[in-house]
Design brief:
Structural class: alpha+beta
Strand content: 25-35%
Distance between the termini: 58 Å
Strand order of the largest sheet: 4-11-10-9-6-7
Largest sheet: 6 strands, mixed
CATH superfamily of the largest domain: Class I glutamine amidotransferase (GATase) domain
CATH topology of the largest domain: Rossmann fold
Radius of gyration: 19 Å
Number of domains: 2
Shape: globular
CATH class of the largest domain: Alpha Beta
Order of helices and strands: HEEEHEHHEEHEEEEEH
Number of strands: 11
Helix content: 10-25%
Number of helices: 6
């Protein structure tokens, strides 16, 4: 507890910590690098999570092997639904033009990254007429919640292809929050995690809309 307090230099001292024991061990010993989530409560009643790791991690959102598999699925007429707060940030973070990750995002996933921290409130407007037949608005979590983690930095994204379209926009600034692409295969990308949508009913409606889009002529 004292170590975390000293490193973070918190104004309000930590009064309680809980080790979040949700361990998922990789197969090889070399991959078992040790990442831990520490759930903390400060003396003023605030809650926060500290992630700790014992050595360096070379993290990739979608590794090369997975990119090849997803590209093959698309080339064979398969469809993809991908969501995540850092889907654009991580794939485009090095160079928006020349990296393999950026090319994969543009050429296979059919989206461009515009910004991170695209929304603070988590309110999303459904702007596409097809998707609006299922749901008008979406709210994802941006605050402390015992059941759903908080989204701190959702991505702003746009279509990379004329056959793509913006289907969702963040209500506070009109930045693109989701895109859909339709040609020989279909893709739906959200700049925030699907699982953080607050309403169970809304999650069902969104998933129904995505599957219906996959089936449209």
């Amino acid at each position: 507890m004292n170590f975390i307090q000293d490193v973070l230099e918190l104004e309000n001292p930590i009064s309680e910590i809980v080790f979040l024991d949700k361990e998922q061990l990789p197969e090889s010993a070399e991959e078992r690098i040790g990442v831990y989530d520490i759930f903390c409560k400060s003396e003023d009643g605030s809650y926060f999570i500290v992630e700790m790791q014992k050595n360096k991690i070379d993290f990739m959102t979608i590794p090369d092997s997975m990119q090849k598999r997803l590209t093959a699925i698309c080339n064979n007429g398969g469809n993809l639904f991908i969501s995540g707060a850092y889907i654009g940030t991580d794939l485009f973070s090095l160079s928006p033009k020349d990296t393999q990750d950026a090319k994969f995002a543009r050429n296979t996933l059919k989206f461009l990254w515009r910004t991170n921290y695209a929304s603070k409130g988590g309110s999303v407007a459904v702007t596409d007429s097809f998707f609006k037949t299922f749901i008008d608005t979406i709210k994802f979590n941006t605050e402390y919640n015992k059941l759903i983690y908080s989204v701190e930095a959702p991505d702003g994204i746009e279509p990379a292809d004329k056959k793509g379209k913006v289907i969702l926009r963040y209500a506070e600034n009109n930045i693109g929050a989701g895109i859909a692409y339709k040609d020989k295969y279909r893709v739906v990308i959200f700049g925030f995690p699907f699982e953080t949508i607050l309403s169970h009913e809304a999650r069902n409606k969104v998933m129904k809309a995505v599957f219906a889009f996959f089936k449209t002529e």
